[in-house]
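Q: Is it fine to ask for two folds in a single conversation?
A: Yes, each is treated on its own. Send the first.
Q: Here.
A: Result:
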Amino acid sequence: IRETMSFNRHSYERERFSQRSKAYCESTLQVMRLWAAYSPSMIFVGSFGSVLILWYGTTQVQAGHLTVGELVAFLAYVALFYVPINQIHSVNNMLQSALAAGDRVIEILDTMPEVRDQPGVTAPPYRLRGDVAVRNVTFNYRPHTPVITDMSFEVKAGERIALVGHSGAGKSTFLKLLMRFYDVKQGGIFLDGHDLRTLPLAYVRDHIGMVQQEPFLFNGTVRESIAYGDLSADLGRIEAVAQAARAHEFIVDLPEQYETWVGERGVKLSVGQKQRVAIARVLLKDPPIIVFDEATSSIDTETEVKIREALNELTHNRTTFIIAHRLATLQHADRILVLMGGRIVDHGPHDILLARSTTYRTLYEAQFDLVKA
């Protein structure tokens, strides 16, 4: 779901879902209509036949051509014959169950999302530069349990900002707030001076590209997976961003190259390969703000170096937020924000933090001691 939201493909996926659902509903309703008409007809025919047999059998008994026992036995055989036909009534129960299930599905589909556009909101008639201001932001998933507390900082367009901290420090939560998967409880996040809550969701997500730790690839070809970032892109542009993300080198080795089917029903890509496809997808989208949520945590060191080299060029003049467990990935960031318990406890370049921040130095030394071990 977040993959769809971050690429602003709500309408695209809704249309796909609607087309398939409509076809399925129409065929199912047609079958149910036929069964609903057939069942009463069979009951009437069965009842009429029994009455006719009883009347004719009675006349034959009176004429001495048939005994009462033979008539009763014949009626019993007829009743057994109609048992399977009468079972068609169970279709009505199935139909009622289907309608009840449909009501529950419709109830879910009709539920209004918590995060939605305000009435009358309009998008600015220009592309955002990428200035980000976070002012006194507090957020909690559950009441009285803040995940982020009074967070404030500013980022100029084109800056590369890294967020580090122990698990649960609030790094990923901040990125979710930036993508507006949730709205802040207190304070505000501003893009080029505009409060996120006053901008259309589609406009915000068109200007932010996100690479998650475990990206999701829809069933389809590699070309379609990358083109999710821009549905109008031609193969030339797709190959260009794949090369920049260092994905081209493994794609050309696939059975059908860019037309190879991937996903649950196709070729299974490794986590590192999926991440490179996801990076290419974001680069094709070409947003002014890029978010990497632990995007290199599952990529081997050699591949990570290649991606880092490409990103150093491709993030030029783009506001970039990076979360990574490998602190070596963050050393070239313009600033590093050190988070603890949902608060920013220090910030600055790598060298300065290494000298003055106990929290950052502890994270750094623990990681490199682990690597040496």
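Q: Second one now.
A: Result:
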Amino acid sequence: QVFVRGLDGKTLVFPVPLSATALELKDAIRSKTGVRPKAQVLTFAGQVLRGNKTLADYNIARDATITLSLRLRGGV
């Protein structure tokens, strides 16, 4: 399991294996929060989690906390 801390400061628990990809975690987050994966920015230890890399690829250990922020759309 990993923890994801959102913008509101609340931390959610996700029972995913460390072999899960960043995209799989984003899908799990969407299921609980309704935030689309493309709008999510997940960071851990200064790294942005992307695509098909696994949580283990980012050296994320069990019970680690990942930060969720939202991608802002630019434009005038």
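Q: Anything structural to flag on that second result?
A: Two points. The domain at 2-70 is CATH 3.10.20.90 (Ubiquitin-like (UB roll)). The chain has one domain: 2-70.
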